Q: What sequence folds into this?
């Protein structure tokens, strides 16, 4: 223990304070003490170990030799635990600080890495010095030894074999010469052995070796060596590559390095996919793909750097004198060139494609899509798809301009064209990208306007013509393939989602909903589901105007018919319709809910065992109860408002009738009996005896004009009575209101009094007044001047009748 004790004394500053724990048989941790931990060599040994020295008496608490096995675990930030293989016990170090734990953990990991590398170096050292100091000479007699070295070597020996092959500059030339000799002599055994050697060298998966064997000088001979696999029939790959593979140059390539990389890339791909497709492992395939990718990037870089090459390419594509075959080859070359652009980095890809846009690549594609050759049209679509994947704003910018409008029409036409077994999804994806609502407003609005104005009806007409009933039978005109109809329906759903403001003006006014639902007549169930999905997309907007349109035009009828005819079959149609019902129920779309239940429940009741339909009916009943209760509340509120209105009207009439009576009291001294205004008889006739009537004697009223006031009062009263009678005819409930008003005796009496007064006015003829100016006495009081007969008659007849009514 001398060495550890000296180490503890000299390096105390670098030690870390820890507690040592050991797991006992009861599964509990026993505290072994507190000390400082460090890593150092064991005495008289090259092994690194963990030492824990007691902090009080410098005694050794723990000594553990670090091994390369994965036995160490770091728990949380302050504990390192492991199972000691020597003592078969669990140990743990609990550190006081997280930095100390991290420091010791990093050192343990470093020691383990060194142990691994030391083992590899020792194996390589012993193998190189004992067996593989050099390769056997390349001769027919030594082929078995070479095969053993290449094929039967361990992983570490393979690294040495790779180094030896790369350092021996004459190894491959000698091997190829020996192959030619064996082939001339038809030495099958030697050829088969050479095949195994070359295959083994390729499986070493060394990029440096690939560069050598895939060079122009060796590649064809290497492929020739791989032809002699005795387990498969002999195939002359060299003859196929030399005679049947034709390299077409749409534009002559003058650079030799570019041509070399193009040929090399093709041959590597042929070797990977054809010659050695059965024997290559994943690592080797990945290395070959990486080499192909690198070559493609180099080819594209060399071609784009040649400015004359790109200009010549587009000049021939635009030239009307270019022959159809040449133009076809140019289009195929442009497609392959665009696909090779993917080998570049993203920034270089965008830069290069912008250069192609500046050369009017979209104008070229527009001409390509007008071709009658369907394969050529699909090739142009592939180029557009690459453009969309790179930068869709470039294509949107072109289509939004006047010169790009025909391209949108050609894309719609392509989506409606039958390309046999080829997919139509590319056209759909490109159109979606152009109509995407997340694009810039200026580009989007221009494209959307053109699409809805010129091409929406075109899509709808395809649906209607494909679903038209022939002679009342169940047959349909197959003017469009089901896949095309499905793509149209998907595009319409996309438009509804991204352009909801277009629903009313472009979908509802033109009857698009009815026409799309023609698809429910088709026997292809997925087309019926597509029509249901379109309606579901519309309903998701929760628009009351749209819901009213659906209910008014009975839009759901084809869907309900298809759902009922489907019966109890549990399929995609069943699920799609039930999901539509469930959405209406959850969102509580009252218009559609009422429309569904009240219109189709007699049909849906056959399938009411379905939980969704039961829930739909329950929600409808709840909604009806809520509406009934709300209606009753509104009726009560309306009745209260009408009652308040008529009560207010009666109060106004009371005030109106009280005003003439007050005037009559002041006018009573002018009666025909000739009594004085101060006599008691004038007081008795008054309705109300005020204490300050004496003061009123000083009141000097303005001269009254002999106006036809009574007639105006009569007309006003007649107008009010007529209005009430008309209102009662229009609304019988007003009779009830009049009864309620009649319960108020005061208002009833005042109304009757007013009526009697009016009748008295009407019974007496009006006469002209003899004098219109009253006299004034010396004290300034008004004298009882002559009163007009009409006024006298009025007041004389009116007051007694009021007394008779009111009892005063």
A:
């Amino acid at each position: 223990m001398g060495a550890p004790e000296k180490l503890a004394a000299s390096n105390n500053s670098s030690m870390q304070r820890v507690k040592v724990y050991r797991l006992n048989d009861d599964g509990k941790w026993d505290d072994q003490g507190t000390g400082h931990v460090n890593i150092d060599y064991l005495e008289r040994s090259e092994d690194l170990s963990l030492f824990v020295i007691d902090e009080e008496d410098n005694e050794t608490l723990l000594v553990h030799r670090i091994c390369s096995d994965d036995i160490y675990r770091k728990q949380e930030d302050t504990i390192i635990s492991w199972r000691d293989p020597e003592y078969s016990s669990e140990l743990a170090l609990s550190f006081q600080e997280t930095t100390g734990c991290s420091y010791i953990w990093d050192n343990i990991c470093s020691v383990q890495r060194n142990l691994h590398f030391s083992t590899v170096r020792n194996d390589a050292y012993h193998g190189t010095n004992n067996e593989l100091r050099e390769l056997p000479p390349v001769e027919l007699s030594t082929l078995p030894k070479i095969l053993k070295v290449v094929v039967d070597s361990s992983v570490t020996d393979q690294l040495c074999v790779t180094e030896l092959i790369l350092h021996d500059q004459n190894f491959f030339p000698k091997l190829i010469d020996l192959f030619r000799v064996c082939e001339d002599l038809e030495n099958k055994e030697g050829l088969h052995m050479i095949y195994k050697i070359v295959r083994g060298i390729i499986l070493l998966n060394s990029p440096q070796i690939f560069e050598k064997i895939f060079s122009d000088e060796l590649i064809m001979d290497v492929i020739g060596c791989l032809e002699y696999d005795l387990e498969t029939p002999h195939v002359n790959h060299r003859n196929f590559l030399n005679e049947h593979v034709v390299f077409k140059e749409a534009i002559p390539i003058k650079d030799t390095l570019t041509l070399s990389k193009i040929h090399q890339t093709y041959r590597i791909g042929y070797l990977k996919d054809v010659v050695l497709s059965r024997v290559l492992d994943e690592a080797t395939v990945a290395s070959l793909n990486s080499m192909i990718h690198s070559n493609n990037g180099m080819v594209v870089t060399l071609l784009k750097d040649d400015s004359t090459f790109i200009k010549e390419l587009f000049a021939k594509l635009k030239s009307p004198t270019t022959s159809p075959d040449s133009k076809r080859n140019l289009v195929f070359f442009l497609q392959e060139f665009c696909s090779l652009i993917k080998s570049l980095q993203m920034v270089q890809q965008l830069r290069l494609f912008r250069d192609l846009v500046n050369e009017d690549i979209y104008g070229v594609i527009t001409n390509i899509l007008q071709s009658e050759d369907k394969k050529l049209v699909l090739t142009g679509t592939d180029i557009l798809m690459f453009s969309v994947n790179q930068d869709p704003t470039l294509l949107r910018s072109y289509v939004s301009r006047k010169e790009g409008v025909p391209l949108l029409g050609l894309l719609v036409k392509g989506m409606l064209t039958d390309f046999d077994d080829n997919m139509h999804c590319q056209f759909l994806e490109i159109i979606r990208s152009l109509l995407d609502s997340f694009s810039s407003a200026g580009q989007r609005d221009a494209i959307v306007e053109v699409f809805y104005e010129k091409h929406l009806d075109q899509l709808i007409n395809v649906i209607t013509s494909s679903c038209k009933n022939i002679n009342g039978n169940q047959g349909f005109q197959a003017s469009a393939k089901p896949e095309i109809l499905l793509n149209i329906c998907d595009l319409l759903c996309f438009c509804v989602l991204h352009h909801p403001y277009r629903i009313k003006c472009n979908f509802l006014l033109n009857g698009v909903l009815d026409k799309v639902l023609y698809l429910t007549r088709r026997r292809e169930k997925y087309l019926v589901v597509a029509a249901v999905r379109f309606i579901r997309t519309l309903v998701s907007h929760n628009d009351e105007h749209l819901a009213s349109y659906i209910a008014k035009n009975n839009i759901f009828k084809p869907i309900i018919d298809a759902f009922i005819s489907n019966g109890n079959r549990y399929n995609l149609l069943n699920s799609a319709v039930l999901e539509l019902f469930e959405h209406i129920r959850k969102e509580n779309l009252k218009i559609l809910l009422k429309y569904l239940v009240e219109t189709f429940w007699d049909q849906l009741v056959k399938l009411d065992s379905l939980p969704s339909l039961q829930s739909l009916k329950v929600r409808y009943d709840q909604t009806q109860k809520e509406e009934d209760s709300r209606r009753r509340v509104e009726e009560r509120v309306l009745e209260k408002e009408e009652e308040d209105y008529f009560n207010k009207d009666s109060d106004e009439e009371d005030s109106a009738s009280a005003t003439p009576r007050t005037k009559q009291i002041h006018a009573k001294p002018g009666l025909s009996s000739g009594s004085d205004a101060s006599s008691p008889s004038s007081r008795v006739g008054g309705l109300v005896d005020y204490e300050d009537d004496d003061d009123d004697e000083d009141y000097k009223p303005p001269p009254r004009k002999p106006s036809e006031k009574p007639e105006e009062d009569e007309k006003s009263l007649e107008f009010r009575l007529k209005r009430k009678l008309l209102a009662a005819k229009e609304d019988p409930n007003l009779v009830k209101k009049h009864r309620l008003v009649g319960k108020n005796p005061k208002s009833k009496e005042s109304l009757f009094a007013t009526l009697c007064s009016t009748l008295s006015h009407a019974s007496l003829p009006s006469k002209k007044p003899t004098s219109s100016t009253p006299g004034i006495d010396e004290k300034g009081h008004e004298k009882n001047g002559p009163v007009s007969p009409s006024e006298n008659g009025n007041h004389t007849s009116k007051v007694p009748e009021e007394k008779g009514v009111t009892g005063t």
Observations:
- The chain has a mean pLDDT of 77.
- The two ends are 135 Å apart (CA to CA).
- The longest strand covers residues 29-41.
